[in-house]
Specification:
single chain, alpha/beta, Rossmann fold, nine-stranded antiparallel β-sheet, 8 helices, about 30% strand
Length: about 400
C-alpha cells in the first residue's frame, strides 16, 4: 500500500524539525522543503544572515532524518502578497498582520501548490495547533483547534485558512507542550534541539520594522495631539453591553463598533512625530514626549493629515472600546456551516491579537458586515488587524477589523 506523501516546511527551527521526525515515525513518506522568502539583508539586525543559517540547519535536519530536501525561492510571491500589502496598509493608517497573511497566501497556497507538484498528499508545518475532522450532513468538515500548549497556541495565526487548505494540512506537534518538543529533538539528536525561537517577521528573519517601513514610507513631520478624556464622543463608549442583541439598533452598533475620527481642534499639540504611518493604536513607545505625568498612548492616527492623536494613561476612553466592525467582504468562516446570516447573532469567545486571552463577545450579522461586541472593553483595537472568534478551543472564523 502506497504511503501518503507529505512535504514539511522545514524552517530551520526545532518545531518543524520535530514535525518531520514525528511524521516519519507515523509512516508518512516525508520530503523537507525550505522556503526562502526574503533577499534584502539591509534591514536585518546586525550582520546575521538568518535565512542562510536557517537553510543550512534545515538541510542538516533533513540529512539526519534521511529525507529528501530542497529549497524553494518564494521571495517574489512574498513581496507581491505580503510586503507590498504591509506597506499599503501602514501607508493607509492601518496595522497589518503579515504572519496571518503569510500562512494564508504563502505556506498554505504557494507552498502547498509547490508540494502538490511533487505529488504530495499533504503539507505539514511546526505550528502549535491541531486539526480534527467531523461530519456535517454526511460531508467532512475540518476543525482548527488550539494547540495543547496554551503558551504556544498559534491557531490565531491560522484563522484565515479555508476548508480546502485545512484538508491538506498536518500539524504534527499541536498536541505537544514546547518542552516535550525540545526533548524529542534532543533524543533524535537534531541540531535544532536548543535553537532559540525566531522573533522576526514570518520567514524574513530578525527585521527592524521601523527601518523596514522607512525604505518605502519616507519620514514626514506632523503633530502629536493630546485628546482629553471628557469629550462628548466618548459617552457612546460607555454604553453597557446588552445581553439581548435585538435591543441594538443600527445607530447604537455604529456608535460602539466603528472607529472614532478626531479633529485637531479637539485637543492640544504636544510635539512632533516623523510620520503617522509609523504608529499604531495602543502604541506607547516612540512618541518621545516627556512631562506628561502618566504615559501617553496612541488612540488614533490620520495618515492623510499626518496627525497622531494620543491619550493620557491606560484608562483613557479612546484606548478602550467595546466593539469592532468587519465589512462583509472581509469576513472569513473556517466553519462555513456555522456562518451567520443577516439578522442573526451568536455568542463566541474572541481575540484581537496573538496570545491575548479569549473574551466573551456577541457577533451580530447585518447586511453591511459583522459587528463584534465584547462583554469587557478591549484595549488598542486597530484597523487592519484580525479578530478571530472561537467556540471553546475551536477557531470558527475571523475577519479584518475596519
Amino acid at each position: 500500500m502506497k504511503r501518503p506523501r507529505v512535504v514539511v516546511g522545514l524552517s530551520g527551527g526545532v518545531d518543524s524539525s520535530v514535525a518531520a521526525h514525528l511524521l516519519i515515525q507515523q509512516g508518512y513518506e516525508v520530503i523537507g522543503m525550505f522556503m526562502k522568502n526574503w533577499h534584502d539583508e539591509s534591514v536585518t539586525i546586525s550582520n546575521e544572515c538568518p535565512w542562510m543559517e536557517d537553510s543550512t540547519d534545515a538541510m542538516l535536519v533533513a540529512e539526519k532524518l534521511g529525507i529528501p530536501f530542497q529549497a524553494i525561492d518564494l521571495s517574489e510571491e512574498y513581496k507581491d502578497r505580503i510586503v507590498d500589502y504591509m506597506f499599503a496598509e501602514y501607508e493607509a493608517g492601518r496595522t497589518p498582520n503579515p504572519d496571518i497573511l503569510c500562512n494564508r497566501e504563502i505556506k498554505f497556497d504557494i507552498f502547498l501548490k509547490a508540494a502538490q507538484k511533487l505529488k504530495a498528499d499533504f503539507v505539514a508545518t511546526g505550528h502549535y495547533c491541531q486539526k480534527k475532522e467531523i461530519a456535517v450532513e454526511g460531508e467532512p468538515v475540518y476543525q482548527l483547534i488550539a494547540g495543547a500548549d496554551p503558551n504556544k497556541d498559534q491557531s490565531y495565526f491560522l484563522c484565515q485558512l479555508s476548508q480546502e487548505q485545512l484538508s491538506k494540512a498536518l500539524f504534527p506537534i499541536g498536541h505537544l507542550q514546547k518542552p516535550d518538543v525540545r526533548k524529542i529533538a534532543k533524543e533524535a539528536d537534531l541540531i535544532t534541539a536548543d535553537k532559540k525561537d525566531s522573533q522576526g517577521l514570518c520567514f524574513i528573519g530578525k527585521v527592524r520594522l521601523p527601518e523596514f517601513l522607512q525604505q518605502q514610507l519616507k519620514p514626514k513631520k506632523g503633530s502629536i495631539i493630546q485628546i482629553q478624556e471628557d469629550l462628548p464622543v466618548f459617552e457612546r463608549l460607555k454604553v453597557p453591553v446588552l445581553t439581548k442583541t435585538t435591543d441594538w439598533d443600527q445607530d447604537m452598533l455604529n456608535a460602539v463598533c466603528l472607529p472614532i475620527h478626531f479633529t485637531p481642534n479637539q485637543g492640544k499639540v504636544l510635539g512632533e512625530h516623523n510620520g503617522a504611518h509609523y504608529f499604531t493604536v495602543g502604541q506607547r513607545k516612540g512618541l518621545q514626549v516627556g512631562g506628561t505625568g502618566k504615559p501617553l498612548f496612541v488612540i488614533a492616527t490620520d495618515t492623510r493629515e499626518n496627525i497622531i492623536y494620543t491619550g493620557l494613561g491606560e484608562e483613557h476612553p479612546g484606548l478602550n472600546r467595546f466593539g469592532l466592525f468587519v465589512k462583509t467582504d472581509q469576513i472569513h468562516w473556517i466553519r462555513e456551516d456555522l456562518a451567520l446570516k443577516p439578522g442573526e447573532s451568536a455568542e463566541y469567545l474572541a481575540r484581537i491579537r496573538y496570545r491575548q486571552p479569549l473574551s466573551k463577545a456577541t457577533l451580530v450579522m447585518k447586511e453591511n458586515g459583522l459587528y463584534v461586541i465584547f462583554e469587557n472593553p478591549q484595549k488598542g483595537i486597530a484597523s487592519g488587524q484580525f479578530v478571530a472568534w472561537y467556540k471553546e478551543d475551536e477557531c470558527i472564523g475571523s475577519g479584518t477589523i475596519f
